[in-house]
Every structure is written in structure tokens, then in C-alpha cells.
């Protein structure tokens, strides 16, 4: 029997003017192994970020993703062992939950000998997660954009000159992401629309000052910043240490800092800033991912 290994990257979404349209893959990964069993048992084992956060069984997001494929095909293996090793912080706005469910969809598709093609998997993952920006980006990697034709997700990969980002993620409990506003002032919407092509061009060209300038505003930006305790203080400390700018991902609490150099020095300053205001946080220096999903197969014992 073959063991299937699926690796999916974290996703940065809802940053600056790119709300619910752009996605950027980051080099933090959810790794999920699927091993068919000779019995009818379902075994789920977890380690890494968020281990123990979900029920181990039919309610785990990986299994929920698998069930989408099994229901669509009216087929399922007799039993399977699922081993999850996750490096993406849960509840951080970096797409961990969406990566889990997408991994389940991809893993089940491979267990059943590929009844669905790539675009069908993207559509299924988009419907399952209700976040096509995450689903498209974690599968294709790099910088992506999507829209709809009726209810069908239409996606494109955009030019990207990869660079490192500094991530700061609060580790205390109780953060709640802001909801999308039902109404947006025309001036705010126009500002976002004006900044969006500048941001896309800057990401493609690797123009970091332009990236930093164009992510400052967005329809979720102010609401997210207000919810992240100490945001303005930490942002100012990072600026003084050399950061060009800061944005957020997925409605927070992840703060994303843009810098051309001195990443380690800036990261240390951010850690100290959070420590001084007594908010627990992790700081990571993370490259961008341009591969997207990686699937490998090997013979299981």
C-alpha cells in the first residue's frame, strides 16, 4: 500500500487593499501523511502547532476535507491513518485551518486515484473552506488572485519577486478577527482600488518600499489594528529598527513586517517591544513559498 504525503504552505491574505482577492504563500507548512489500512479504523495523530486543538476523528478539518471527496465520489478506503505535522500557527490569520481541509481533499483525491483534476480540487477546497484566496494560494503557491464566473472560481498566478517577511504572532488566547464591513465609505474603497495595482506591480518587481506604502490602507486594516493589542507601539519600534512598513494577515492577529535588510535586528526589536507591554508573541523570519502543494508517494510498510 502507498503512503501519500501532502505539504501545503501558509497563506497571507486580506493584506492592505488585497482583501478577499490576493493571496501570498509563505514557507510555513502543514504536512499530512495518509496511509491506507487493512482494517476499517480511522487514526488521526498530530504534532506541532495546534496539536490537540481539534478532536481526533471525524471532526478534524483534515478528515472533513476528505469527506468532501468521499461524498462526491461515493467511494472511500476501508481505513486510513493520518499523521499531521504542522508548522503554521493556528488562529493566526495564516490559513492553517484552510490548509488542513485542503490537505484532506488532496489526500483523499490521491487515495482514490485522482478522480478530480487540479481546478476541480481548487473549487472543492474553495467551497469547503469558504476562503478561495487561501485555497488557491496554498495549492498554487506564490502570489495569486481570484474572481468568480457565476459560482466557479477563476484564479491566476501573478508575477512575484520573492523576499523575506518578519511575522509577529500573539500567542495569548481570546483574539477575534473583525468581520467584513457590510458598507464601506466610497473614499476608503477608492483608496484601496488605487493602491491594489500598485501593490501587485511592486510585488512583481520586488519594490519593497512601494509594497510597504501600498499595504498601509485597506477596508479591514484599521479594524484589525485596533484588535491587536500594542499594534501601534510595536509598529513604531519596528520602524525605528529599520522596517519599511507593517500590515496584517487574515484579519489578524499576525503582523507582517516588510524590510529590505537587518531582519534579525528588527525581529529582536519586535520581540522586545511585545515583552515590554507584557503580550506574549512569537516572531519569525519567513521566506515566501513559490511551489504550493507538494505531493509525494512511497510504499508503506
Write the topology of this structure.
Blueprint: E1 2-13, E2 22-37, E3 42-48, H1 61-73, E4 79-86, H2 96-111, H3 118-129, H4 132-140, E5 143-149, E6 152-158, E7 165-170, H5 186-205, H6 208-214, H7 221-227, H8 231-241, E8 245-248, E9 255-258, H9 263-276, E10 281-286, E11 294-299
Parallel strand pairs: 3-4
Antiparallel strand pairs: 1-2, 1-11, 2-4, 2-5, 5-6, 7-9, 7-10, 8-9
Helix pairs in contact: 1-2, 2-3, 3-4, 5-6, 8-9
Please tell me about this protein's structure:
Keywords: Amino-acid biosynthesis, ATP-binding, Kinase, Nucleotide-binding, Transferase. It is a single chain. α3 (about 120-130) runs antiparallel to α4 and α5 (about 185-205) runs antiparallel to α6 (about 210-215). β3 (about 40-50), α1 and β4 (about 80-85) form a beta-alpha-beta unit. Helix content is about 35%, strand content about 30%. The mean pLDDT is about 95. The chain has two domains: about 1-160 and about 290-300, Ribosomal Protein S5, domain 2; about 165-285, Alpha-Beta Plaits, CATH 3.30.70.890. It is built from nine helices and eleven strands. The protein has helices at about 60-75, 95-110, 120-130, 130-140, 185-205, 210-215, 220-225, 230-240, 265-275, and strands at about 1-15, 20-35, 40-50, 80-85, 145-150, 150-160, 165-170, 245-250, 255-260, 280-285, 295-300. The strands form two sheets. Strands 1, 2, 3, 4, 5, 6 and 11 form a seven-stranded mixed sheet that branches. The protein has about 300 residues and is α+β, with helices and mostly antiparallel strands.
Amino acid at each position: 500500500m502507498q503512503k501519500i504525503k501532502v505539504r501545503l504552505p501558509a497563506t497571507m491574505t486580506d493584506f492592505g487593499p488585497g482583501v478577499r482577492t490576493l493571496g501570498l504563500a509563505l514557507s510555513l507548512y502543514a504536512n499530512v501523511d495518509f496511509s491506507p489500512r487493512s482494517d476499517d479504523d480511522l487514526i488521526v495523530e498530530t504534532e506541532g502547532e495546534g496539536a490537540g486543538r481539534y478532536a481526533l476523528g471525524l471532526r478534524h478539518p483534515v478528515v472533513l476535507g476528505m469527506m468532501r471527496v468521499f461524498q462526491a465520489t461515493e467511494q472511500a478506503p476501508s481505513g486510513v491513518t493520518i499523521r499531521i505535522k504542522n508548522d503554521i500557527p493556528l488562529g493566526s490569520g495564516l490559513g492553517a485551518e484552510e490548509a488542513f481541509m485542503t490537505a484532506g481533499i488532496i489526500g483523499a483525491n490521491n487515495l482514490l486515484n485522482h478522480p478530480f483534476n487540479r481546478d476541480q480540487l481548487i473549487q472543492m477546497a474553495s467551497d469547503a473552506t469558504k476562503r478561495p484566496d487561501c485555497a488557491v494560494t496554498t495549492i498554487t503557491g506564490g502570489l495569486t488572485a481570484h474572481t468568480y464566473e457565476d459560482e466557479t472560481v477563476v484564479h491566476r498566478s501573478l508575477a512575484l519577486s520573492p523576499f523575506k517577511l518578519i511575522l509577529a504572532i500573539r500567542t495569548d488566547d481570546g483574539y477575534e478577527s473583525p468581520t467584513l464591513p457590510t458598507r464601506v465609505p466610497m473614499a476608503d474603497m477608492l483608496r484601496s482600488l488605487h493602491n491594489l495595482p500598485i501593490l501587485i506591480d511592486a510585488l512583481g518587481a520586488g519594490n519593497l518600499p512601494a509594497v510597504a506604502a501600498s499595504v498601509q490602507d485597506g477596508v479591514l486594516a484599521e479594524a484589525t489594528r485596533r484588535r491587536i493589542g500594542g499594534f501601534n507601539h510595536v509598529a513604531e519600534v519596528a520602524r525605528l529598527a529599520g522596517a519599511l512598513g507593517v500590515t496584517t494577515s487574515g484579519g489578524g492577529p499576525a503582523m507582517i513586517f516588510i524590510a529590505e535588510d537587518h531582519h534579525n535586528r528588527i525581529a529582536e526589536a519586535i520581540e522586545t517591544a511585545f515583552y515590554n507591554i507584557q503580550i506574549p508573541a512569537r516572531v519569525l523570519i519567513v521566506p515566501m513559498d513559490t511551489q504550493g502543494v507538494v505531493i509525494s508517494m512511497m510504499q508503506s510498510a
